[in-house]
C-alpha cells in the first residue's frame, strides 16, 4: 500500500450513534482501512473499562487514548510505553473538599482501573447506571487512596458549578483545567493541566512513525479542540458544536448519518 494514515475517532457523538453503538457501515469502513494497513485509534474522555468494548468490536490492535490523553496505552502490547498523567492524590482530595464546600454532593472519580461514585441526590441516580458495575459507591474521600485521572462534579443547580469553576480558575489554574457539560446536567470535568487529546495523539503518531500531515481526526465537542487543530485533517461531525466546526478543516455528516464512514469512503475512494 502507499503511505499509512492514522485515523483518530472520538467516541460519544462521533464514532457512536445516540444509542451508543457503532453503525454497520462505519464499522465496515474502519475494519477495511485497518486491513489495508492504516491505523485506527480511539481517542476518548472515557475510562478504559467504559471504552474497551468498542476497541474489541473494531478488532483494533493499536494504542488507545483514554481520559482525554491522560492515559495512553496499548491493550494488546504490554511493552508499549504507557503515558499516564493523573491528578496527584492530595490535590484531588483538596478539590473534592472544595466541591463539598460549594454544596456539590454528586461526585464521580475515575482512576486507571477503578471508579468511585458518590450520589448525594436521588435525581442523579442515573450515574450508577452510566458507570455500570465498576464503581465503589459511597463517600469518595472515604475510599479514594490513589491518584485519579479525572474528577466529575454534578449538581441539579447551575450556581454551585459556577462557583466551583471560579474557584478552580483562581486557585488551581496551574494544576488543573476543566470542561463544562451543558444541559440536561450541570457538570464539570476536571483533568490535569498537561492533558489533552492532541498530546496523546502526537505520542501515538510518533510511536507509529506516522507524520502529523497523515493524521485524520474526528470529533464533536470542546474536548476535541486540540486534537482537531493538531491533525493534518481535523474533521468536525455535523452535530459538533459551532466552535469546533469553525476550527476544523472540514465538516462531515452527523454521527447518526455515518459521518465518519462517508468522509473516509470519499477520502480513500473506497
TrEMBL record:
GO terms for molecular function: magnesium ion binding; phosphatase activity. It comes from the Bacteria. CDD domains: HAD_Pase. GO terms for cellular component: cytosol. InterPro entries: Cof, HAD-like_sf, HAD-SF_hydro_IIB, HAD_sf. This is Cof subfamily of IIB subfamily of haloacid dehalogenase superfamily/HAD-superfamily hydrolase, subfamily IIB.
Amino acid at each position: 500500500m502507499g503511505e499509512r494514515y492514522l485515523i483518530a475517532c472520538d467516541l460519544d457523538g462521533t464514532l457512536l450513534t445516540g444509542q451508543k453503538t457503532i453503525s454497520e457501515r462505519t464499522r465496515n469502513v474502519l475494519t477495511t482501512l485497518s486491513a489495508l494497513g492504516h491505523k485506527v485509534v480511539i481517542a476518548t474522555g472515557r475510562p478504559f473499562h467504559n471504552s474497551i468494548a468498542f476497541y474489541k468490536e473494531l478488532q483494533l490492535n493499536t494504542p488507545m487514548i483514554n481520559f482525554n490523553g491522560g492515559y495512553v496505552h496499548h491493550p494488546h502490547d504490554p511493552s508499549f510505553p504507557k503515558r499516564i498523567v493523573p491528578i496527584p492524590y492530595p490535590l484531588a482530595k483538596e478539590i473534592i473538599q472544595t466541591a463539598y464546600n460549594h454544596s456539590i454532593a454528586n461526585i464521580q472519580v475515575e482512576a486507571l482501573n477503578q471508579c468511585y461514585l458518590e450520589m448525594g441526590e436521588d435525581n442523579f441516580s442515573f450515574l450508577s447506571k452510566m458507570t455500570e458495575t465498576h464503581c465503589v459507591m459511597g463517600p469518595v474521600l472515604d475510599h479514594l487512596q490513589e491518584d485519579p485521572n479525572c474528577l466529575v462534579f454534578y449538581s441539579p443547580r447551575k450556581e454551585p458549578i459556577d462557583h466551583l469553576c471560579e474557584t478552580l480558575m483562581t486557585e488551581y489554574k496551574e494544576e488543573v483545567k476543566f470542561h463544562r457539560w451543558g444541559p440536561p446536567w450541570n457538570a464539570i470535568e476536571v483533568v490535569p493541566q498537561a492533558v489533552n487529546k492532541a498530546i496523546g495523539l502526537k505520542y501515538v503518531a510518533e510511536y507509529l512513525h506516522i507524520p502529523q500531515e497523515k493524521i485524520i481526526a474526528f470529533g464533536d465537542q470542546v474536548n476535541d479542540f486540540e486534537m482537531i487543530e493538531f491533525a493534518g485533517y481535523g474533521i468536525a461531525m455535523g452535530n459538533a458544536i459551532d466552535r469546533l466546526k469553525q476550527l476544523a478543516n472540514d465538516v462531515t455528516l452527523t454521527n447518526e448519518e455515518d459521518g465518519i464512514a462517508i468522509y473516509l469512503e470519499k477520502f480513500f475512494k473506497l
